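#structure-requests
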Amino acid sequence: MPYSYSRTIHFPDTDAAGVVFFANYLVICHEAYEEALAAAGLDVATFFAANGIVVPIARSSAEYLRPLRVGDKLRISVLPELLSENSFALSFELFRLGPPEKLAARVRTEHICTSRQLRERVPLPPALAAWASQR
């Protein structure tokens, strides 16, 4: 079941044309990802350090369907998907609230779990694997 995150677009999110700068879609989605982890009981401030891992983004893609501007209210859905014992993907849908509500963008990120010390892939910690497996 997707996690839902609410957010408002602010001036620093936008470019000179007054719309959200393309790279800031990833920033916004990463906020939603952190909130989804927190809602699942994973304390972002300590979880990764305590497990000696980092979980970088290995791949990302985005589809921009309509512009987002300052003051727009969003609902962002976050749907994790386990890909392997050491990787998962996140699918995001960004909806501009209405009326009517309209899909503004789709973003996907793929993450790999690596050991902070060894700098090589390691299995996801059980709590993170369980979270990524929820569908």
